[in-house]
Design goal:
Residues 19-148 form the LTD domain. Keywords: Signal. InterPro entries: Lamin_tail_dom, Lamin_tail_dom_sf. The chain has helices at residues 3-28, 48-51; strands at residues 31-37, 55-60, 66-67, 72-74, 80-82, 87-88, 93-97, 107-109, 121-127, 133-140, 146-148. The chain is of the alpha+beta class. It has one domain (29-148): Lamin Tail domain (Immunoglobulin-like). A hairpin with a 5-residue loop joins strand 9 and strand 10. The N and C termini lie far apart (43 Å). 23% of the residues are buried. Bound molecules: calcium ion (CA). Calcium ion binds next to loops.
């Protein structure tokens, strides 16, 4: 095939892909870290309320319920949170708070007495039960208290 024709075909495929993306993305969706609120409001006093003022949200925009049992959420310092038996339903978001509390269908607690998410920079890593990397979200700013991933 002449070089020009091959390029044209490639361009056509690219255009078609771009046109399909919005619908595909909506239909397929993702399960990902969607937001990290890393700098708790006020001073870091280590009260349970302050510890629960930092959290990570994970959103399931797929059309399928996903069991997170055995998945892990870790920071750069390798504080690891292992998910208990928990199913994230389609279109739902779960908030994983650092402090202590009673787990619900929308909020899980790491049950910690110390902070996890650095107030300046860190990386949240979500791994599947078998240890494979699923998604990461990094931040590096003291100008904001949170990161939208
Ligand atoms: Ca923090």
């Amino acid at each position: 095939m002449p070089r020009t024709r091959r390029l044209a075909a490639g361009a056509a495929i690219t255009a078609a892909t771009v046109l399909l993306l919005p619908g595909q993305a909506h239909a397929a969706g993702t399960l990902r870290i969607s937001k990290i609120w890393y700098d708790s409001p006020g001073s870091d006093t280590r009260t349970n309320a302050s510890l629960n003022g930092e959290w990570v949200q994970i959103t399931n925009s797929t059309g399928t319920a996903v069991s997170l049992k055995g998945w892990t959420l870790t920071d750069t310092s390798r504080h690891a949170y292992t998910f208990p038996t928990f199913t994230l339903k389609p279109g739902k978001t779960v908030t994983v708070k650092t402090g202590r509390g009673t787990n619900t269908t929308t909020t899980l607690y790491q049950q910690r007495g110390a902070y996890v998410w650095n107030n300046d920079k860190d990386t949240a890593t979500l791994r599947r039960t078998n240890g494979t990397l699923h998604h990461t979200c990094a931040y590096n700013s003291t100008r904001y208290d949170y990161k939208t991933c």
